[in-house]
Structure formats: structure tokens, C-alpha cells
Write a structure and sequence with these properties.
The protein contains five helices and seven strands; from the N terminus they run βββαβαβαβαβα. It is α/β, with parallel strands linked by helices. It has a domain of about 80 residues: 3-Layer(aba) Sandwich (Rossmann fold), CATH 3.40.50.2300. Helix 1 crosses helix 5. The longest helix has 14 residues. The chain is globular.
């Protein structure tokens, strides 16, 4: 059962991993207004032992980023128009540092992939994205630290 805490309008979900002790929360930051993407990323975060921070708009994301990038292991950003993803990607290009950023899109994938990579993204996935693909992505870019 997830533990939920609110910070502004963004939800933070922390999932306990059975039989493990994680010394620090390993957070994935999802910026998306797509309910299906949020469900799949939430389940993938739970299965991989990561905390999840969700912003449903670019405005919410900017408020969260004002607190810095410490503790973030991965940023998943929907580039579709409802979250103003391309504008946010432009703003974050020099800010997200060593935190891998992966773009998500329901638009024409080859064009958006080139755009995302040009602005520092580690990759781009076309939607819909299956649960297993999110798990492989998370496992490959930010494996959980288990002590």
C-alpha cells in the first residue's frame, strides 16, 4: 500500500519493497497529465522499489524543480501539448544535470525523438508505453539500491 504525501499540488508516493532496506528514497519524477502513463509508471516504480513524484502540468513541475534535483534518479516527461512538455524541456535543458530525462509522446515519434535528444533527453518513448517497457527503462537507467 503506497504512502502518499502532498507537496503543493504534486503527489509523492513511496512504495516499501518487501525484504529490503533502502537507505534513501530513489525518486522518479513523472511529468504527465496522461492517466494511463501515470498508472503504468506508478506500478513500475512500486515494482522496482522507487518513490514516485507526479506533476500533472508544467506549472506543477516548475514548482517542484524549484526545490532542486537532489534525490531524483529519473525524469519522465510527457511532451504532449497538455503539459507544455516541449517548453519545459527547453527550460530544463541545462538544469537537470546528471539526472536522465526520458521523453514520452503520443505524437509522431521520430520527429519528437530528434527534438528531445537535441535538448538533452536520454531517449524518447512513443505512447502507449507498456508496463514492462517502463520497468526495463527504470531498471536500465536507475537500478534500485538494495542493502
Amino acid at each position: 500500500m503506497p504512502i502518499t504525501a502532498k507537496k503543493g499540488n504534486c503527489a509523492r508516493f513511496t512504495f516499501p519493497v518487501e525484504g529490503t532496506l533502502c537507505m534513501t528514497p530513489l525518486a522518479i519524477f513523472l511529468i504527465s497529465g496522461d492517466a494511463e502513463v501515470e498508472r503504468n509508471v506508478t506500478e513500475s516504480a512500486r515494482r522496482t522499489g522507487h518513490a514516485l513524484i507526479v506533476a500533472r502540468t508544467a506549472h506543477q513541475a516548475v514548482k517542484m524543480f524549484a526545490h532542486g534535483f537532489e534525490g531524483l534518479r529519473l525524469i519522465l516527461m510527457d511532451l504532449d501539448p497538455d503539459v507544455h512538455g516541449v517548453a519545459l524541456l527547453n527550460a530544463l535543458e541545462d538544469c537537470h544535470g546528471k539526472v536522465p530525462l526520458v521523453a514520452l509522446t503520443g505524437c509522431e515519434e521520430s520527429y519528437v525523438t530528434r527534438l528531445a535528444l537535441r535538448h538533452g533527453a536520454a531517449g524518447c518513448l512513443g505512447k502507449p508505453v507498456a508496463l514492462e517497457r517502463f520497468e526495463r527503462l527504470i531498471g536500465g537507467l536507475c537500478p534500485a539500491v538494495v542493502h
